[in-house]
């Protein structure tokens, strides 16, 4: 089969969903705005990308939304230094904490789901400490103008978001360290036996997810000029929705940034369209839940039928 | 190279060490709670009083009941449910609505618990088919939350003409009903998981799914039972919660899911399944409530409280993990 054909088949379900969602939203709401959709890449798309990298490596980073909230708080807290500088510091801190997290998980050999539930609570506590429990604001609000520029369809933030997705896509599929994450996620024992370094893989995966969380959180806070102790809490669930609707395997070792981009497009079109129609946030949460269940069931039955036909073929061959 | 005797003494040493480590692992949290208690009694004024202990237990009861129920899911190897908040709110709203319609809080409580069970069993069937529990419960949670928010228009639902607070105000020996229910529910859950066939099946399914299936245990049936236990906890907790506050809103209880998961984890039940106990989760919930209450009485600011709690959870999770690894070597 030609590469295009393989590519098409791999993402078929997501393509169909995307087309349906776009068609429905356009039919119901003709003056739907594309830029409002793209703008959601910060924070949603980038957080989903970070989550996807850890899932490909066969792990979970549940702390990523807390990381985003923490970095946002740090960026606003340090804004007297200049907002651009404080955003960069917040991102470096986020990457550093992510690396530390990956190192600890590899060193302890602990289940990342367990460890990151702990750090989810810890980072949220650190966000409370930095903000002092109240919403904090950037002193000089004109500093946020840089982050809110509008260039036709995109803002600088959307460009950063797209660049991160593309960059991670290239990293995962074209570099050695990226390929090693697939190996660790798909068949860990075999990968380690073949010489893939487990600890480095964990540090890379969690460093990336920490960095993605930090970029998303810091930029959102910089755009809005404020940070709150309980901000972005819903992002974990939304990002998980993006990743899973996009079709990244929970078992690890499979999926790519194309999946993340497709999942993001589906969820973002849906929620931007519903928000444009004046629906409350909980309405789109309902639809995302339904979508998630549909994708999950569809993939389950596709696998089930595939398995059955494979067995039937084997039986025919044996007879 | 060591001789045979050396190996055998080594082995015996290690057996003793392992036993010691397992004792520490089993009793670390209760000892820690007692320690926090003793220290607080001496340092925090007005701490060592019946009212304080009652307040701690009351604060534990809602999270504790759900954590005890969730232990069944974790034990059965299905990680945890991320739909706790949504299902609890759903069940609570049903309690208020039925209470309003029928005027009887007993009928309302029954319907609310049955509603939680129905939602839970549906999820149990889907998970039993072989789908990932975390994702199914997450999706189900979103759907339930969205539905409830649409039906209530995002506003608070409260009982107007009827009094639904009976379950919270009822007391035996000065202990409010939520505390007694919490203790009874934990005892029942312990009895079921440790001393009945279904409990053993849940354990085995979590320990090794393939072996369990080959020995004739139905993964579907066992998973459904685990979800029944969980939903029962949710339903009871929702009724008790709404009895205390006498109103409920779709956006309420937002931190409940993570509190429950944290309670199960620091209690020391293994996320991989097969190892743990409902009592552990109850103690985990008790520990969180005790530490929080001590800090509240000591006048620690809210922000610092969250931070300390987070640090304690991470530290406990790591220590328990190291102890489990050392104990099973």
CATH C-level name of chain B? Mainly Alpha
Low-confidence stretches of chain B: none
Largest sheet of chain A: 2 strands, antiparallel
Anisotropy-based shape of chain A: globular
Count of helical regions of chain A:
14
The neighbouring-strand order within the major sheet of chain A is: 1-2
How much of the sequence lies in strands of chain A comes to: under 5%
What is the end-to-end distance of chain B? 21 Å
Q: Strand order, main sheet of chain B: write it out.
A: 1-4
Helix-strand string of chain A = HHHHHHHEHHHHEHHH
Q: How would you classify the helix and strand content of chain A by structural class?
A: mainly alpha
Q: Care to count the β-strands of chain A? A: 2
Radius of gyration of chain B: 21 Å
- Count all strands of chain B and give the number: 4
Summed up, the domain count of chain A is 1
Chain pair sharing the greatest interface: A-B, 45 and 47 residues
Could you tell me how far the N terminus lies from the C terminus of chain A, measured between alpha carbons in angstroms? 29 Å
* CATH architecture annotation name of chain B: Orthogonal Bundle
CATH-assigned fold name of chain A:
ABC transporter involved in vitamin B12 uptake, BtuC
Q: What does the radius of gyration of chain A come to?
A: 20 Å
């Amino acid at each position: 089969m030609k590469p295009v054909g393989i590519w098409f088949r791999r993402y078929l379900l997501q393509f169909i969903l995307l087309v349906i969602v776009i068609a429905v939203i356009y039919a119901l709401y003709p003056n739907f705005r594309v830029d409002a959709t793209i703008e959601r890449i910060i924070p949603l798309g980038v957080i989903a990308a970070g989550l996807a990298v850890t899932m490909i490596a066969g792990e979970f980073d549940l702390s990523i939304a807390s990381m985003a909230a923490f970095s946002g708080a740090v960026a606003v807290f340090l804004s007297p230094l200049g907002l651009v500088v404080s955003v960069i510091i917040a991102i470096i801190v986020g990457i550093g904490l992510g690396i530390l997290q990956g190192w600890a998980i590899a060193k302890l050999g602990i289940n990342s789901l367990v460890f990151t539930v702990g750090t989810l609570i810890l980072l949220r506590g650190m966000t409370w400490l930095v903000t002092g429990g109240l919403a904090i604001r950037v002193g000089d609000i004109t500093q946020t103008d840089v982050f809110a520029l509008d260039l036709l369809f995109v803002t600088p933030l959307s460009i950063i978001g797209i660049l991160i997705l593309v960059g991670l896509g290239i990293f995962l599929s074209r570099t050695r360290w990226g390929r090693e994450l697939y190996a660790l996620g798909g068949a860990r024992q075999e990968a380690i036996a073949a010489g893939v370094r487990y600890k480095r893989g964990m540090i890379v995966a969690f460093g990336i997810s920490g960095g993605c969380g930090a970029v998303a959180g810091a930029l959102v806070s910089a755009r809005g000029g404020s940070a709150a102790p309980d901000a972005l809490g819903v992002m974990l669930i939304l990002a998980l929705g993006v990743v899973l609707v996009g079709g990244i395997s929970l078992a690890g070792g499979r999926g790519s940034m194309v999946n993340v981009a497709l999942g993001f497009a589906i969820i973002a079109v849906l929620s931007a369209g519903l928000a444009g129609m004046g629906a409350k946030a909980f309405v789109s949460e309902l639809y995302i839940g339904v979508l998630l269940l549909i994708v999950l069931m569809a993939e389950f039955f596709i696998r089930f039928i595939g398995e059955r036909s494979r067995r039937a073929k084997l039986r025919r061959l044996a007879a | 190279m060591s001789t045979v005797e050396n190996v055998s003494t080594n082995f015996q040493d290690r057996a003793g060490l392992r036993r010691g480590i397992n004792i520490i692992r089993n009793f670390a949290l209760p000892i820690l709670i007692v320690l926090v208690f003793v220290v607080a009694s001496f340092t925090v004024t007005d701490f060592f009083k019946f009212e304080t202990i009652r307040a701690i237990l009351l604060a534990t009861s809602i999270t504790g009941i759900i954590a005890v129920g969730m232990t069944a899911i974790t034990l059965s190897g299905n990680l945890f449910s991320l739909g706790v908040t949504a299902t609890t709110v759903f069940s609570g709203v049903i309690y208020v609505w039925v209470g309003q319609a029928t005027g009887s809080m007993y009928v309302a409580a029954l319907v609310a618990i049955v509603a939680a069970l129905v939602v839970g069993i549906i999820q149990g069937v889907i998970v039993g088919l072989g789908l990932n529990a975390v994702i199914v419960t997450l999706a189900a949670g979103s759907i339930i939350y969205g539905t409830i928010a649409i039906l209530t228009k995002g506003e608070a639902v409260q009982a107007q003409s009827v009094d639904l607070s009976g379950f919270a105000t009822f007391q035996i020996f000065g202990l409010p009903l939520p505390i007694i229910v919490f203790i009874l529910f934990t005892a029942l859950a312990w009895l079921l998981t440790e001393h009945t066939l279904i409990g053993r099946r849940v354990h085995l399914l979590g320990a090794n799914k393939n072996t369990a299936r080959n020995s004739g245990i139905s993964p579907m049936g066992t998973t459904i039972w685990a979800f029944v236990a969980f939903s029962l906890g949710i339903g009871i907790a929702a009724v008790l919660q709404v009895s205390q506050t006498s109103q409920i809103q779709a956006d309420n209880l937002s931190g409940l899911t993570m509190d429950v998961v944290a309670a199960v984890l620091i209690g020391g039940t293994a996320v991989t399944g097969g190892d743990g106990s409902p009592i552990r989760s109850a103690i985990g919930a008790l520990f969180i409530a005790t530490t929080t209450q001590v800090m509240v009485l000591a006048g620690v600011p809210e922000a610092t409280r969250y931070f300390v709690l987070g640090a304690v959870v991470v530290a406990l999770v790591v220590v328990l993990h190291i102890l489990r690894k050392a104990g099973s070597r």
